[in-house]
Protein backbone atom coordinates (compact mmCIF):
# COMPACT_ATOMS: atom_id res chain seq x y z
CA UNK A 1 0.00 0.00 0.00
CA UNK A 2 3.05 2.29 0.09
CA UNK A 3 3.46 2.69 -3.66
CA UNK A 4 2.19 5.70 -5.65
CA UNK A 5 -1.32 5.72 -7.02
CA UNK A 6 -0.05 5.88 -10.59
CA UNK A 7 2.08 2.75 -10.39
CA UNK A 8 0.87 -0.64 -11.54
CA UNK A 9 1.79 -3.90 -9.87
CA UNK A 10 5.38 -4.79 -10.90
CA UNK A 11 4.77 -8.44 -10.02
CA UNK A 12 1.78 -8.79 -12.36
CA UNK A 13 3.86 -10.43 -15.11
CA UNK A 14 6.68 -11.86 -12.99
CA UNK A 15 7.28 -15.62 -12.91
CA UNK A 16 5.28 -17.38 -10.20
CA UNK A 17 7.13 -18.71 -7.16
CA UNK A 18 5.75 -21.08 -4.53
CA UNK A 19 4.90 -18.23 -2.11
CA UNK A 20 3.12 -16.37 -4.92
CA UNK A 21 1.11 -19.46 -5.78
CA UNK A 22 0.09 -19.91 -2.13
CA UNK A 23 -0.86 -16.26 -1.88
CA UNK A 24 -2.80 -16.54 -5.13
CA UNK A 25 -4.82 -19.54 -3.94
CA UNK A 26 -5.44 -17.91 -0.56
CA UNK A 27 -6.63 -14.72 -2.25
CA UNK A 28 -8.92 -16.66 -4.57
CA UNK A 29 -10.50 -18.56 -1.68
CA UNK A 30 -11.05 -15.34 0.28
CA UNK A 31 -12.46 -13.47 -2.74
CA UNK A 32 -15.00 -16.19 -3.48
CA UNK A 33 -15.59 -17.99 -0.19
CA UNK A 34 -15.81 -14.87 1.95
CA UNK A 35 -18.58 -13.14 -0.04
CA UNK A 36 -20.37 -16.49 -0.45
CA UNK A 37 -20.55 -17.01 3.32
CA UNK A 38 -21.45 -13.36 3.87
CA UNK A 39 -24.31 -13.48 1.34
CA UNK A 40 -25.62 -16.70 2.90
CA UNK A 41 -25.59 -15.24 6.42
CA UNK A 42 -27.21 -12.00 5.28
CA UNK A 43 -29.92 -13.93 3.43
CA UNK A 44 -30.75 -15.75 6.67
CA UNK A 45 -31.27 -12.34 8.27
CA UNK A 46 -32.95 -10.29 5.53
CA UNK A 47 -34.52 -12.58 2.92
CA UNK A 48 -38.21 -13.36 3.31
CA UNK A 49 -39.36 -13.81 -0.29
CA UNK A 50 -39.42 -12.03 -3.62
CA UNK A 51 -40.72 -8.79 -2.17
CA UNK A 52 -39.69 -6.48 -5.01
CA UNK A 53 -41.97 -6.25 -8.09
CA UNK A 54 -39.00 -6.72 -10.44
CA UNK A 55 -37.97 -9.89 -8.64
CA UNK A 56 -41.42 -11.45 -9.04
CA UNK A 57 -41.63 -10.25 -12.64
CA UNK A 58 -38.29 -11.81 -13.59
CA UNK A 59 -39.07 -15.01 -11.70
CA UNK A 60 -42.35 -15.61 -13.52
CA UNK A 61 -40.58 -14.96 -16.85
CA UNK A 62 -37.95 -17.56 -15.97
CA UNK A 63 -40.61 -20.09 -14.98
CA UNK A 64 -42.46 -19.53 -18.26
CA UNK A 65 -39.22 -20.31 -20.11
CA UNK A 66 -38.83 -23.54 -18.16
CA UNK A 67 -42.42 -24.51 -18.96
CA UNK A 68 -41.73 -24.13 -22.68
CA UNK A 69 -43.92 -21.03 -23.10
CA UNK A 70 -41.14 -18.90 -24.55
CA UNK A 71 -40.38 -15.37 -23.43
CA UNK A 72 -43.98 -14.64 -22.47
CA UNK A 73 -45.32 -12.87 -19.41
CA UNK A 74 -48.24 -13.34 -17.05
CA UNK A 75 -47.99 -9.69 -15.99
CA UNK A 76 -50.49 -8.08 -18.35
CA UNK A 77 -50.02 -4.34 -18.80
CA UNK A 78 -52.97 -2.55 -20.46
CA UNK A 79 -50.45 -0.66 -22.59
CA UNK A 80 -49.42 -3.96 -24.22
CA UNK A 81 -52.92 -5.36 -24.77
CA UNK A 82 -53.37 -4.16 -28.34
CA UNK A 83 -52.87 -7.01 -30.78
CA UNK A 84 -51.70 -9.54 -28.18
CA UNK A 85 -53.39 -12.50 -26.57
CA UNK A 86 -53.60 -12.02 -22.79
CA UNK A 87 -52.99 -15.74 -22.30
CA UNK A 88 -49.75 -15.77 -24.29
CA UNK A 89 -48.38 -12.23 -24.25
CA UNK A 90 -44.76 -11.70 -25.33
CA UNK A 91 -42.76 -9.66 -22.83
CA UNK A 92 -41.25 -6.53 -24.37
CA UNK A 93 -40.51 -4.66 -21.14
CA UNK A 94 -37.59 -6.61 -19.66
CA UNK A 95 -34.30 -7.88 -21.01
CA UNK A 96 -34.10 -11.65 -21.61
CA UNK A 97 -30.70 -12.47 -20.10
CA UNK A 98 -31.54 -12.60 -16.39
CA UNK A 99 -34.76 -14.62 -16.93
CA UNK A 100 -32.66 -17.02 -19.02
CA UNK A 101 -30.29 -17.61 -16.09
CA UNK A 102 -33.28 -18.00 -13.76
CA UNK A 103 -34.75 -20.57 -16.14
CA UNK A 104 -31.52 -22.58 -15.97
CA UNK A 105 -31.59 -22.48 -12.18
CA UNK A 106 -35.30 -23.31 -12.01
CA UNK A 107 -34.83 -26.22 -14.38
CA UNK A 108 -32.12 -27.67 -12.17
CA UNK A 109 -33.39 -26.81 -8.68
CA UNK A 110 -37.07 -25.92 -9.04
CA UNK A 111 -38.92 -22.61 -9.35
CA UNK A 112 -38.68 -21.34 -5.77
CA UNK A 113 -37.97 -18.06 -4.01
CA UNK A 114 -34.68 -19.27 -2.59
CA UNK A 115 -33.39 -20.37 -6.00
CA UNK A 116 -34.17 -16.95 -7.49
CA UNK A 117 -32.39 -15.21 -4.61
CA UNK A 118 -29.40 -17.53 -4.99
CA UNK A 119 -29.03 -16.41 -8.61
CA UNK A 120 -28.68 -12.74 -7.67
CA UNK A 121 -26.29 -13.77 -4.90
CA UNK A 122 -24.20 -15.74 -7.37
CA UNK A 123 -23.52 -12.66 -9.50
CA UNK A 124 -22.74 -10.62 -6.37
CA UNK A 125 -20.08 -13.18 -5.46
CA UNK A 126 -18.75 -13.26 -9.04
CA UNK A 127 -18.30 -9.48 -9.06
CA UNK A 128 -15.83 -9.51 -6.14
CA UNK A 129 -12.87 -11.27 -7.86
CA UNK A 130 -13.45 -9.26 -11.06
CA UNK A 131 -13.32 -6.06 -8.99
CA UNK A 132 -10.11 -7.26 -7.34
CA UNK A 133 -8.54 -7.84 -10.76
CA UNK A 134 -9.69 -4.42 -11.97
CA UNK A 135 -8.12 -2.64 -9.00
CA UNK A 136 -4.94 -4.69 -9.27
CA UNK A 137 -4.51 -4.06 -12.99
CA UNK A 138 -5.26 -0.34 -12.79
CA UNK A 139 -3.08 0.30 -9.74
CA UNK A 140 -1.82 -2.50 -7.49
CA UNK A 141 -3.05 -5.38 -5.36
CA UNK A 142 -3.64 -3.21 -2.32
CA UNK A 143 -6.21 -1.13 -4.21
CA UNK A 144 -7.85 -4.29 -5.55
CA UNK A 145 -8.06 -5.94 -2.14
CA UNK A 146 -9.41 -2.89 -0.31
CA UNK A 147 -11.95 -2.16 -3.06
CA UNK A 148 -13.19 -5.75 -3.07
CA UNK A 149 -13.47 -5.81 0.73
CA UNK A 150 -15.45 -2.57 0.98
CA UNK A 151 -17.74 -3.48 -1.92
CA UNK A 152 -18.45 -6.95 -0.49
CA UNK A 153 -19.46 -5.41 2.85
CA UNK A 154 -21.45 -2.48 1.45
CA UNK A 155 -25.15 -2.31 2.31
CA UNK A 156 -26.45 -1.90 -1.27
CA UNK A 157 -24.37 -4.83 -2.51
CA UNK A 158 -25.74 -7.14 0.18
CA UNK A 159 -29.31 -5.95 -0.33
CA UNK A 160 -29.11 -6.61 -4.07
CA UNK A 161 -27.40 -9.94 -3.43
CA UNK A 162 -30.53 -11.33 -1.75
CA UNK A 163 -33.07 -9.38 -3.83
CA UNK A 164 -33.44 -11.89 -6.71
CA UNK A 165 -33.15 -8.92 -9.07
CA UNK A 166 -30.92 -8.39 -12.09
CA UNK A 167 -28.90 -5.57 -10.48
CA UNK A 168 -26.05 -7.90 -9.51
CA UNK A 169 -25.92 -9.33 -13.05
CA UNK A 170 -25.46 -6.01 -14.81
CA UNK A 171 -23.03 -4.86 -12.11
CA UNK A 172 -20.95 -7.97 -12.76
CA UNK A 173 -21.09 -7.39 -16.53
CA UNK A 174 -20.21 -3.71 -16.19
CA UNK A 175 -17.22 -4.43 -13.95
CA UNK A 176 -16.04 -7.07 -16.40
CA UNK A 177 -16.50 -4.62 -19.28
CA UNK A 178 -14.30 -2.00 -17.60
CA UNK A 179 -11.65 -4.65 -16.96
CA UNK A 180 -11.66 -5.79 -20.60
CA UNK A 181 -11.61 -2.22 -21.93
CA UNK A 182 -8.60 -1.48 -19.73
CA UNK A 183 -6.88 -4.56 -21.13
CA UNK A 184 -7.49 -3.25 -24.65
CA UNK A 185 -6.19 0.21 -23.75
CA UNK A 186 -3.13 -1.28 -22.04
CA UNK A 187 -2.43 -3.38 -25.13
CA UNK A 188 -2.50 -0.27 -27.29
CA UNK A 189 -0.32 1.56 -24.78
CA UNK A 190 2.35 -1.15 -24.83
CA UNK A 191 2.29 -1.72 -28.58
CA UNK A 192 5.56 -1.00 -30.34
CA UNK A 193 3.85 -0.36 -33.69
CA UNK A 194 0.92 2.04 -33.17
CA UNK A 195 -0.77 1.17 -36.45
CA UNK A 196 -1.13 -2.59 -36.04
CA UNK A 197 -2.44 -2.98 -32.46
CA UNK A 198 -6.04 -4.12 -32.63
CA UNK A 199 -6.54 -6.93 -30.06
CA UNK A 200 -9.39 -8.75 -31.75
CA UNK A 201 -10.22 -11.17 -28.93
CA UNK A 202 -10.44 -8.47 -26.25
CA UNK A 203 -12.39 -6.12 -28.52
CA UNK A 204 -14.82 -8.90 -29.37
CA UNK A 205 -15.28 -9.65 -25.66
CA UNK A 206 -15.92 -5.94 -25.01
CA UNK A 207 -18.60 -5.98 -27.72
CA UNK A 208 -20.20 -9.12 -26.28
CA UNK A 209 -20.25 -7.70 -22.73
CA UNK A 210 -21.77 -4.43 -23.98
CA UNK A 211 -24.45 -6.41 -25.80
CA UNK A 212 -25.16 -8.57 -22.75
CA UNK A 213 -25.64 -5.44 -20.66
CA UNK A 214 -28.34 -4.33 -23.11
CA UNK A 215 -29.95 -7.78 -22.97
CA UNK A 216 -29.99 -7.50 -19.17
CA UNK A 217 -31.73 -4.12 -19.06
CA UNK A 218 -32.83 -2.08 -22.11
CA UNK A 219 -31.64 1.14 -20.42
CA UNK A 220 -28.06 0.07 -21.20
CA UNK A 221 -28.83 0.66 -24.87
CA UNK A 222 -27.46 4.17 -24.29
CA UNK A 223 -24.14 2.68 -23.21
CA UNK A 224 -23.50 1.14 -26.64
CA UNK A 225 -22.47 4.40 -28.41
CA UNK A 226 -20.42 5.43 -25.37
CA UNK A 227 -18.24 2.31 -25.28
CA UNK A 228 -17.97 2.17 -29.05
CA UNK A 229 -17.02 5.85 -29.26
CA UNK A 230 -14.28 5.60 -26.62
CA UNK A 231 -12.70 2.51 -28.18
CA UNK A 232 -12.87 3.75 -31.76
CA UNK A 233 -11.60 7.22 -30.88
CA UNK A 234 -8.60 5.94 -28.91
CA UNK A 235 -7.87 2.96 -31.16
CA UNK A 236 -4.81 3.13 -33.41
CA UNK A 237 -6.76 1.60 -36.31
CA UNK A 238 -10.29 2.95 -36.07
CA UNK A 239 -11.88 0.95 -38.86
CA UNK A 240 -10.46 -2.34 -37.55
CA UNK A 241 -11.49 -1.42 -34.00
CA UNK A 242 -15.03 -0.60 -35.07
CA UNK A 243 -15.34 -3.88 -36.98
CA UNK A 244 -13.88 -6.12 -34.28
CA UNK A 245 -16.02 -4.49 -31.59
CA UNK A 246 -19.18 -3.97 -33.63
CA UNK A 247 -19.54 -7.39 -35.27
CA UNK A 248 -19.85 -9.41 -32.01
CA UNK A 249 -22.02 -6.67 -30.56
CA UNK A 250 -24.40 -6.87 -33.53
CA UNK A 251 -24.57 -10.66 -33.35
CA UNK A 252 -25.63 -10.39 -29.70
CA UNK A 253 -28.18 -7.56 -29.88
CA UNK A 254 -29.69 -7.51 -33.39
CA UNK A 255 -31.86 -10.66 -33.01
CA UNK A 256 -33.44 -9.21 -29.87
CA UNK A 257 -33.99 -5.84 -31.55
CA UNK A 258 -35.70 -7.57 -34.47
CA UNK A 259 -37.91 -9.51 -32.07
CA UNK A 260 -38.85 -6.28 -30.25
CA UNK A 261 -39.73 -4.60 -33.53
CA UNK A 262 -41.96 -7.47 -34.60
CA UNK A 263 -43.78 -7.71 -31.25
CA UNK A 264 -44.00 -4.07 -30.12
CA UNK A 265 -42.92 -1.89 -33.04
CA UNK A 266 -40.05 -0.44 -30.98
CA UNK A 267 -36.76 -2.25 -31.74
CA UNK A 268 -34.40 -0.67 -29.21
CA UNK A 269 -36.31 -0.28 -25.95
CA UNK A 270 -39.48 -2.27 -26.56
CA UNK A 271 -42.38 -1.23 -24.37
CA UNK A 272 -39.99 0.88 -22.28
CA UNK A 273 -40.03 3.40 -25.13
CA UNK A 274 -43.33 4.65 -23.71
CA UNK A 275 -41.56 5.64 -20.49
CA UNK A 276 -40.62 8.82 -22.37
CA UNK A 277 -43.96 10.34 -21.37
CA UNK A 278 -44.27 8.54 -18.02
CA UNK A 279 -43.33 10.05 -14.65
CA UNK A 280 -44.99 13.31 -15.75
CA UNK A 281 -48.06 15.13 -14.46
CA UNK A 282 -50.05 13.29 -17.13
CA UNK A 283 -48.84 9.83 -16.08
CA UNK A 284 -47.14 9.90 -12.65
CA UNK A 285 -44.66 7.10 -11.97
CA UNK A 286 -45.35 4.01 -14.04
CA UNK A 287 -49.09 4.62 -14.45
CA UNK A 288 -48.54 4.91 -18.19
CA UNK A 289 -48.31 1.11 -18.36
CA UNK A 290 -51.91 1.04 -17.13
CA UNK A 291 -53.28 3.01 -20.09
CA UNK A 292 -54.45 1.61 -23.43
CA UNK A 293 -52.30 2.77 -26.33
CA UNK A 294 -55.24 4.44 -28.07
CA UNK A 295 -55.86 6.60 -24.97
CA UNK A 296 -52.35 8.07 -24.81
CA UNK A 297 -52.36 11.86 -24.56
CA UNK A 298 -50.30 13.60 -27.25
CA UNK A 299 -49.58 17.21 -28.19
CA UNK A 300 -47.54 20.16 -26.99
CA UNK A 301 -48.66 19.67 -23.40
CA UNK A 302 -47.00 16.29 -23.06
CA UNK A 303 -43.82 17.64 -24.71
CA UNK A 304 -43.50 20.41 -22.13
CA UNK A 305 -44.23 17.89 -19.36
CA UNK A 306 -41.40 15.65 -20.59
CA UNK A 307 -39.05 18.63 -20.73
CA UNK A 308 -39.91 19.59 -17.17
CA UNK A 309 -39.51 15.98 -16.07
CA UNK A 310 -35.99 15.87 -17.50
CA UNK A 311 -34.85 18.77 -15.32
CA UNK A 312 -36.59 17.40 -12.25
CA UNK A 313 -35.22 13.88 -12.74
CA UNK A 314 -31.68 15.20 -13.09
CA UNK A 315 -31.97 16.79 -9.66
CA UNK A 316 -33.42 13.59 -8.22
CA UNK A 317 -30.48 11.58 -9.52
CA UNK A 318 -27.88 13.82 -7.90
CA UNK A 319 -29.82 13.81 -4.64
CA UNK A 320 -30.00 10.01 -4.65
CA UNK A 321 -26.39 9.29 -5.63
CA UNK A 322 -25.05 9.19 -2.04
CA UNK A 323 -27.41 6.29 -1.30
CA UNK A 324 -26.32 4.28 -4.34
CA UNK A 325 -23.07 3.05 -2.84
CA UNK A 326 -20.64 3.78 0.02
CA UNK A 327 -21.16 7.52 0.58
CA UNK A 328 -17.53 8.28 1.36
CA UNK A 329 -16.44 6.92 -2.04
CA UNK A 330 -17.80 9.99 -3.84
CA UNK A 331 -15.77 12.22 -1.52
CA UNK A 332 -12.55 10.64 -2.79
CA UNK A 333 -13.65 9.89 -6.36
CA UNK A 334 -14.51 13.50 -7.23
CA UNK A 335 -11.06 14.94 -6.39
CA UNK A 336 -9.44 12.00 -8.17
CA UNK A 337 -10.98 13.37 -11.37
CA UNK A 338 -8.42 16.17 -11.28
CA UNK A 339 -5.49 13.84 -10.62
CA UNK A 340 -3.11 13.30 -13.52
CA UNK A 341 -2.37 9.63 -14.25
CA UNK A 342 0.98 8.66 -15.71
CA UNK A 343 -0.72 5.64 -17.23
CA UNK A 344 -2.80 6.89 -20.19
CA UNK A 345 -4.93 3.73 -20.11
CA UNK A 346 -6.14 4.57 -16.58
CA UNK A 347 -6.96 8.10 -17.69
CA UNK A 348 -9.05 6.87 -20.63
CA UNK A 349 -10.88 4.39 -18.44
CA UNK A 350 -11.73 7.21 -16.04
CA UNK A 351 -13.23 9.09 -18.98
CA UNK A 352 -15.30 6.02 -19.85
CA UNK A 353 -16.65 5.97 -16.28
CA UNK A 354 -17.78 9.59 -16.62
CA UNK A 355 -19.31 9.04 -20.05
CA UNK A 356 -21.14 5.97 -18.78
CA UNK A 357 -22.52 7.99 -15.90
CA UNK A 358 -23.75 10.64 -18.34
CA UNK A 359 -25.41 7.98 -20.51
CA UNK A 360 -27.27 6.57 -17.50
CA UNK A 361 -28.12 10.11 -16.39
CA UNK A 362 -29.65 10.79 -19.81
CA UNK A 363 -31.74 7.61 -19.62
CA UNK A 364 -32.95 8.53 -16.13
CA UNK A 365 -33.70 12.15 -16.99
CA UNK A 366 -35.61 11.50 -20.20
CA UNK A 367 -37.36 8.31 -19.13
CA UNK A 368 -37.91 7.16 -15.51
CA UNK A 369 -35.37 7.46 -12.70
CA UNK A 370 -34.03 4.08 -11.57
CA UNK A 371 -31.17 4.72 -9.18
CA UNK A 372 -30.21 1.05 -9.21
CA UNK A 373 -28.71 1.56 -12.69
CA UNK A 374 -25.98 3.77 -11.22
CA UNK A 375 -24.94 0.94 -8.92
CA UNK A 376 -23.41 -0.70 -11.99
CA UNK A 377 -20.52 1.79 -11.98
CA UNK A 378 -20.02 1.73 -8.19
CA UNK A 379 -17.24 -0.92 -8.32
CA UNK A 380 -15.02 1.05 -10.71
CA UNK A 381 -15.77 4.32 -8.88
CA UNK A 382 -14.71 2.53 -5.70
CA UNK A 383 -11.40 1.54 -7.32
CA UNK A 384 -10.51 5.14 -8.18
CA UNK A 385 -11.70 6.39 -4.78
CA UNK A 386 -9.66 3.79 -2.87
CA UNK A 387 -6.60 4.47 -5.01
CA UNK A 388 -6.81 8.19 -4.25
CA UNK A 389 -7.41 7.52 -0.55
CA UNK A 390 -4.36 5.27 -0.32
CA UNK A 391 -2.37 7.91 -2.18
CA UNK A 392 -3.35 10.51 0.42
CA UNK A 393 -2.42 8.15 3.27
CA UNK A 394 0.90 7.52 1.59
CA UNK A 395 1.55 11.25 1.35
CA UNK A 396 0.65 11.57 5.04
CA UNK A 397 3.08 8.71 5.81
CA UNK A 398 0.49 6.51 7.50
CA UNK A 399 1.87 3.24 8.81
CA UNK A 400 0.66 -0.02 7.26
CA UNK A 401 -1.27 -0.78 10.46
CA UNK A 402 -3.00 2.61 10.33
CA UNK A 403 -3.97 2.05 6.71
CA UNK A 404 -5.64 -1.26 7.58
CA UNK A 405 -7.42 0.37 10.52
CA UNK A 406 -8.83 3.02 8.16
CA UNK A 407 -9.83 0.32 5.69
CA UNK A 408 -11.60 -1.68 8.39
CA UNK A 409 -13.44 1.41 9.60
CA UNK A 410 -14.64 2.23 6.08
CA UNK A 411 -15.76 -1.36 5.55
CA UNK A 412 -17.67 -1.33 8.83
CA UNK A 413 -19.28 1.99 7.90
CA UNK A 414 -20.41 0.48 4.61
CA UNK A 415 -21.79 -2.65 6.31
CA UNK A 416 -23.83 -1.20 9.17
CA UNK A 417 -26.71 0.30 7.08
CA UNK A 418 -27.53 -3.16 5.72
CA UNK A 419 -28.72 -4.32 9.13
CA UNK A 420 -30.96 -1.32 9.67
CA UNK A 421 -32.91 -1.63 6.43
CA UNK A 422 -35.34 -4.39 7.40
CA UNK A 423 -38.90 -3.13 7.90
CA UNK A 424 -40.77 -5.69 9.99
CA UNK A 425 -44.17 -4.18 9.14
CA UNK A 426 -43.57 -4.44 5.40
CA UNK A 427 -42.25 -7.96 5.91
CA UNK A 428 -45.44 -8.97 7.72
CA UNK A 429 -47.75 -7.54 5.06
CA UNK A 430 -45.76 -9.07 2.21
CA UNK A 431 -45.70 -12.57 3.68
CA UNK A 432 -49.45 -12.65 4.22
CA UNK A 433 -50.23 -11.05 0.84
CA UNK A 434 -48.07 -13.65 -0.91
CA UNK A 435 -49.80 -16.44 1.06
CA UNK A 436 -53.22 -15.17 -0.05
CA UNK A 437 -52.04 -14.88 -3.66
CA UNK A 438 -50.94 -18.53 -3.51
CA UNK A 439 -54.57 -19.48 -2.84
CA UNK A 440 -55.31 -18.57 -6.46
CA UNK A 441 -53.33 -21.62 -7.58
CA UNK A 442 -56.13 -23.75 -6.10
CA UNK A 443 -59.08 -21.44 -6.74
CA UNK A 444 -58.52 -20.25 -10.32
CA UNK A 445 -58.63 -22.49 -13.36
CA UNK A 446 -56.16 -22.51 -16.22
CA UNK A 447 -56.80 -19.68 -18.66
CA UNK A 448 -58.54 -17.41 -16.15
CA UNK A 449 -57.19 -13.87 -15.69
CA UNK A 450 -56.90 -11.99 -12.39
CA UNK A 451 -57.42 -8.23 -12.13
CA UNK A 452 -54.97 -6.86 -9.55
CA UNK A 453 -53.01 -3.88 -8.27
CA UNK A 454 -50.01 -6.24 -7.88
CA UNK A 455 -50.07 -8.42 -10.99
CA UNK A 456 -46.45 -9.50 -10.47
CA UNK A 457 -47.42 -11.09 -7.14
CA UNK A 458 -50.30 -12.98 -8.76
CA UNK A 459 -48.11 -14.03 -11.70
CA UNK A 460 -45.39 -15.50 -9.46
CA UNK A 461 -47.16 -16.70 -6.32
CA UNK A 462 -50.62 -17.26 -7.80
CA UNK A 463 -49.28 -18.68 -11.09
CA UNK A 464 -52.07 -16.99 -13.07
CA UNK A 465 -52.13 -14.29 -15.77
CA UNK A 466 -52.86 -11.00 -14.03
CA UNK A 467 -53.94 -7.69 -15.50
CA UNK A 468 -52.69 -4.48 -13.88
CA UNK A 469 -55.73 -2.42 -12.89
CA UNK A 470 -56.23 0.39 -15.44
CA UNK A 471 -55.31 3.93 -14.45
CA UNK A 472 -58.78 5.06 -15.51
CA UNK A 473 -61.62 3.24 -13.78
CA UNK A 474 -64.02 3.96 -16.66
CA UNK A 475 -61.86 1.81 -18.96
CA UNK A 476 -62.42 -1.35 -16.92
CA UNK A 477 -65.65 -2.43 -18.73
CA UNK A 478 -63.93 -2.10 -22.10
CA UNK A 479 -60.97 -4.16 -20.91
CA UNK A 480 -63.29 -6.78 -19.41
CA UNK A 481 -64.91 -7.12 -22.82
CA UNK A 482 -61.48 -7.48 -24.41
CA UNK A 483 -60.37 -10.02 -21.80
CA UNK A 484 -63.52 -12.11 -21.17
CA UNK A 485 -61.58 -14.64 -19.06
CA UNK A 486 -61.10 -12.06 -16.28
CA UNK A 487 -62.87 -14.09 -13.61
CA UNK A 488 -60.91 -13.09 -10.52
CA UNK A 489 -59.80 -10.01 -8.64
CA UNK A 490 -56.90 -9.80 -6.18
CA UNK A 491 -56.44 -6.56 -4.24
CA UNK A 492 -53.90 -5.61 -1.58
CA UNK A 493 -54.10 -2.90 1.03
CA UNK A 494 -52.04 -0.59 -1.22
CA UNK A 495 -54.98 -0.31 -3.64
CA UNK A 496 -56.62 2.01 -1.09
CA UNK A 497 -54.25 4.73 -2.30
CA UNK A 498 -55.76 4.64 -5.81
CA UNK A 499 -59.04 6.38 -5.03
CA UNK A 500 -61.82 6.48 -2.49
CA UNK A 501 -63.98 3.94 -4.43
CA UNK A 502 -61.05 1.48 -4.49
CA UNK A 503 -60.59 2.07 -0.77
CA UNK A 504 -64.26 1.30 -0.23
CA UNK A 505 -64.08 -1.91 -2.25
CA UNK A 506 -61.02 -3.17 -0.37
CA UNK A 507 -62.28 -2.20 3.08
CA UNK A 508 -65.64 -3.86 2.47
CA UNK A 509 -64.07 -7.08 1.16
CA UNK A 510 -61.62 -7.07 4.06
CA UNK A 511 -64.40 -6.61 6.58
CA UNK A 512 -66.33 -9.50 5.05
CA UNK A 513 -63.24 -11.72 5.24
CA UNK A 514 -62.85 -10.82 8.89
CA UNK A 515 -66.46 -11.79 9.53
CA UNK A 516 -65.92 -15.06 7.66
CA UNK A 517 -62.82 -15.77 9.76
CA UNK A 518 -64.72 -15.07 12.97
CA UNK A 519 -67.59 -17.33 11.88
CA UNK A 520 -65.14 -20.10 10.99
CA UNK A 521 -63.38 -19.88 14.35
CA UNK A 522 -66.65 -19.80 16.33
CA UNK A 523 -68.15 -22.54 14.12
CA UNK A 524 -71.05 -20.40 13.00
CA UNK A 525 -72.61 -20.17 9.52
CA UNK A 526 -70.54 -18.01 7.15
CA UNK A 527 -71.88 -14.54 6.27
CA UNK A 528 -73.79 -14.07 3.02
CA UNK A 529 -71.40 -13.23 0.15
CA UNK A 530 -71.14 -9.62 -0.98
CA UNK A 531 -71.54 -8.91 -4.66
CA UNK A 532 -70.41 -5.69 -6.33
CA UNK A 533 -73.24 -3.99 -8.22
CA UNK A 534 -74.85 -0.60 -8.81
CA UNK A 535 -74.29 2.41 -11.04
CA UNK A 536 -74.14 5.23 -8.52
CA UNK A 537 -70.40 4.68 -8.07
CA UNK A 538 -68.82 4.04 -11.53
CA UNK A 539 -66.23 1.62 -10.12
CA UNK A 540 -68.93 -0.63 -8.66
CA UNK A 541 -70.57 -0.80 -12.05
CA UNK A 542 -67.23 -1.49 -13.74
CA UNK A 543 -66.62 -4.39 -11.33
CA UNK A 544 -70.18 -5.66 -11.62
CA UNK A 545 -70.50 -9.28 -10.54
CA UNK A 546 -67.34 -9.76 -8.45
CA UNK A 547 -68.24 -11.61 -5.26
CA UNK A 548 -66.27 -11.98 -2.03
CA UNK A 549 -64.20 -15.13 -1.45
CA UNK A 550 -63.01 -16.35 1.93
CA UNK A 551 -59.21 -16.09 1.90
CA UNK A 552 -58.81 -18.03 5.12
CA UNK A 553 -56.75 -15.28 6.74
CA UNK A 554 -56.91 -13.70 10.18
CA UNK A 555 -58.96 -10.79 11.42
CA UNK A 556 -57.70 -8.11 8.98
CA UNK A 557 -56.22 -9.78 5.89
CA UNK A 558 -53.82 -7.48 3.94
CA UNK A 559 -55.22 -8.79 0.62
CA UNK A 560 -58.63 -9.88 -0.65
CA UNK A 561 -59.94 -12.07 -3.49
CA UNK A 562 -63.13 -11.76 -5.49
CA UNK A 563 -64.70 -14.01 -8.12
CA UNK A 564 -67.30 -13.41 -10.80
CA UNK A 565 -70.30 -15.66 -10.02
CA UNK A 566 -74.00 -15.50 -10.78
CA UNK A 567 -75.82 -13.17 -8.40
CA UNK A 568 -76.84 -15.07 -5.25
CA UNK A 569 -80.36 -14.86 -3.92
CA UNK A 570 -79.28 -12.41 -1.25
CA UNK A 571 -76.82 -9.74 -2.25
CA UNK A 572 -75.51 -6.59 -0.75
CA UNK A 573 -73.51 -3.83 -2.36
CA UNK A 574 -70.72 -2.12 -0.44
Morphology call = globular
Mean pLDDT: 88
Give me the side-by-side strand order of the main sheet.
2-5-4-6-8-7
Overall radius of gyration: 27 Å
**How far apart are the first and last residues' alpha carbons, in Å?**
71 Å
Low-confidence stretches: 1-6, 8-16, 566-574
The H/E string reads HHEEEHHHHHHHHHHHHHHHEHEHEHHEE
- Class based on secondary structure composition and strand pairing: mainly alpha
Give the helix level as a range of percent.
Answer: 55-70%
Fraction of residues in β-strands? 5-15%
For the secondary structure, the number of strands is 8
* Total of DSSP H or I helical runs spanning 4+ residues: 21
Question: Could you characterize the architecture of this molecule?
Answer:
The chain is mainly α. It is built from 21 helices and eight strands. The chain has helices at residues 18-46, 53-66, 97-109, 113-138, 141-153, 155-161, 167-190, 200-216, 223-234, 238-264, 300-320, 327-336, 344-366, 378-395, 400-415, 424-438, 440-443, 455-462, 476-482, 500-521, 538-542, and strands spanning 72-73, 75-76, 89-90, 449-452, 466-468, 486-492, 546-549, 559-564. The strands form two sheets. Strands 2-5-4-6-8-7 form a six-stranded mixed sheet. A two-stranded antiparallel sheet has the order 1-3. Helix 18 links the parallel strand 4 and strand 5 (466-468). It starts with 17 loop residues before the first helix and ends in a 10-residue tail after the last strand. Residues 1-6, 8-16 and 566-574 have low confidence and may be disordered.
